[in-house]
Task: structure prediction
Amino acid sequence: MPHRALKKLRIGIVGAGAIVRQRHLPGLLALSNVQVVAVCNARIETAQRIAKEFHIPEVMDDWAEMLDRPDLDIIWIGTPPHLHAPITISALEAGKHVFCQARMAMNLREGREMLSAAQARPQLVTMLCPPPHGLRGGIFFQKLLRDGYAASSGTFGSPPSTASFPTRWPRPTGGSARN
Result:
């Protein structure tokens, strides 16, 4: 049986912050079946610099226009979280696969809307990339949910003892704390 060549997955990057530049783009560009076709960022100058650095052929200044492109298979979202829900939902409605950087959404309502949009399109892959610190915190939150400290509305009640909880969050030690 002859071997068929796989189609290259064509990606449009929306939001190219530090995580996308330091982790996602180098990883994507190392894959032979992936082509990063376009980049869109809040500041066009930044998008141009990133396009030059990573050899991305096109720079766009409007993420909604990127979604209209028939030559893109995947929208890779690396924007601040307030844009995750609108871009994810719009990309799914446009028939694109979606990879979204964490945090998923700004609130439970947005998260549910994103989930509903993904479930309505089972032929599309929708993926959320958890941050490394989120993986550790996820175990704690799973325990809170299992132990009944979360209501179906998504709000949390008071655990019986807060003595073991940290009273201060650690300060960021690098990267961007703006998102």
About this structure: The longest strand covers residues 34-40. Residues 158-172, 175-179 have pLDDT under 50 and may be disordered.
